[in-house]
Amino acid sequence: MRLLVVEDDRTLNKQIVTALEQAGYAVDAAFDGEEGQFLGDTEPYDAIILDLGLPKVDGVSVLTAWRREGRKMPVIILTARDRWSDKVQGFDAGADDYVTKPFHMEELLARVRALLRRATGHATSEIACGPVKLDTRSGRVAVDGNPVKLTSHEYRLLSYLMHHMGRIVSRGELTEHLYDQDFDRDSNTIEVFIGRLRKKLGVDIIQTVRGLGYLLDASQTQTKS
Predict the structure, then answer these.
(1) Per DSSP, what are the bridge partners of residue 133?
(2) How far is CA 60 from CA 34, 68, 73, 93, 146, in A?
(3) For every one of its 225 residues, what pLDDT tens digit does the chain have, with 9 covering 90 and above?
(4) What is the pTM (predicted TM-score) of this model?
(5) Burial of 40 (0-12, 13-18, 19+ CB in 10 A)
(6) Would you say domain 2-120 falls under CATH 3.40.50.2300?
(7) What does DSSP say about strands 97-100 and 75-79: parallel, antiparallel, or unpaired?
(8) Backbone phi, psi, residue 139, to 5°
(9) Cα-flanking dihedrals φ and ψ of residue 31, to 5°?
């Protein structure tokens, strides 16, 4: 999953980005409303964390512009303001959730996980596809109850496919959602990660749909010999 953090406090921005990266997300950062609005317009984020009190363009105006252009990515607003009217204004502009500063990082991470689950139709932190279970809270993966150790990129790939199981996902889409904007992207590496995942999981839940991409389908699950 790929996220954007729009926060002008550079220390807080870095803290949020670091926490999200450690939780297994690809993360981009912006430090004013103008830059944040541009990235939200041009990059396919799975969720955005947006401060309301931004320089150049305020957060409510940025969010209003995104929604007016039909951008549907989930957005969590950050605000240091205590007035309930500011939160109402954020929700009316199209926010999905909010966190008031100062906040505990674990709360923000939990809200991000919940937002991503809801956006993809999952009710709990544990997502299952046949014998494969992925716990978005702990970042752990297990097959038939046995833990599977994955690299950060393998985990991101499996997480994205499991959040979107039952839908064909192209290599291009995976490339856009697995890496931040500074990463040297090569869609051919997706095939390498898919191969590693299949080997580590030991079950055929990842189906290749020739010419289109990949499909996570538990109904075809078979244990490899």
Answers:
(1) 128, 142
(2) 12, 12, 15, 6, 46
(3) 899 999 999 999 999 999 999 998 999 999 999 999 999 999 999 999 999 999 999 999 999 999 999 999 999 999 876 777 888 899 999 999 999 999 999 999 999 999 998 888 887 888 998 899 999 888 899 999 999 999 988 998 999 999 998 899 998 889 888 877 766 656 578 888 899 999 999 888 899 999 899 999 876 544 443
(4) 0.81
(5) buried
(6) yes
(7) parallel
(8) 75, 20
(9) -120, 5
**Amino acid of residue 101:** K
Contact assessment for residue 58 and residue 79, using Cβ atoms and an 8 Å cutoff: no
Q: Which CATH class is domain 126-216?
A: mainly alpha
Continuous segment of H or E residues that includes residue 216: strand 213-216
DSSP string, 159-199: HHHHHTTTS-B-HHHHHHHHS-TTS---THHHHHHHHHHHH
The length of the chain is 225
Phi-psi region of 208 (alpha: psi -120 to 50; beta: other; left: phi over 0): beta
What is the distance, to the nearest Å, from the Cα of residue 57 to the centroid of all Cα atoms in its chain?
24
Q: Which residues touch 197 (CB under 8 Å, ≥6 apart)?
A: 150, 154, 157, 158, 206
Residue indicated by tokens 């007035």: 83
Degrees (nearest 5) of the Cα angle 180, 182, 184? 95
Domain boundaries, the chain: 2-120, 126-216
